[in-house]
Each structure stands twice: as C-alpha cells, then as structure tokens.
Write a structure and sequence with these properties.
Blueprint lengths: L12 H4 L9 H6 L34 H5 L9 H6 L11
Length: about 100
C-alpha cells in the first residue's frame, strides 16, 4: 500500500474516511524526539500539588498542614481559607 501526502484543503471528507493517512506527528513520537510539557525544565521552577478531599460533599472542619509545612523543599502550603483572605486569589505570594 502506498501513502500519498496531500493537503487537507485539497481533499473532500468522503475521500479521507476509511483511507490510510500519513500523520505528520508520528515520526517524532515513534523516535522519541517529541517534546512534552513534562520534558521542559526551567531553572528555579516550583511545582504545585493539589490535595483534595477523598470524600465527595464532605464538610471539612479542620486541615492540619503541619506535616506538609515541615517537609523539605515545600515552599508554601495554602488552604481555601488562605485564598479567601487574599486580596488577589489568583496570585498567592509565598516566602517571608
């Protein structure tokens, strides 16, 4: 079977259905040359981990963040209460 490369604008939808189409991205994926978001490393970048309740519709009365705060490498720990008190909930500041 031969595969012909054509531009999408040059082909009717009925011609594509059920036929072999050469995909442009496959070579990078198969050879390992593709770059994914997880492959990008920035110096001094921080990573975020969100912890959610294991129970749907639960009433959370208290959150003990002490273990997370004492963990090496943790820059900040925020709860919903911190976000509500922030002047700009989308931009929380960490550090001294």
């Amino acid at each position: 079977m031969s595969v012909e490369t054509v531009e999408a604008d040059d082909v009717e939808g009925e011609e594509i259905l059920g036929s072999a189409i050469e995909r442009r991205e496959d070579a990078h994926l198969i050879t390992g040359d593709a770059e994914y978001v997880d492959d990008i490393q920035y110096p001094r970048a921080a990573h975020l981990a969100m912890v959610r309740s294991q129970y749907g519709h639960a009433r959370i009365e208290d959150i003990d963040t002490s273990a997370a705060e004492e963990t090496d490498g943790v820059l900040a720990v925020y709860t919903a209460e911190d976000v509500a008190e922030s002047d700009s909930p989308g931009n929380l500041v960490f550090g001294p």
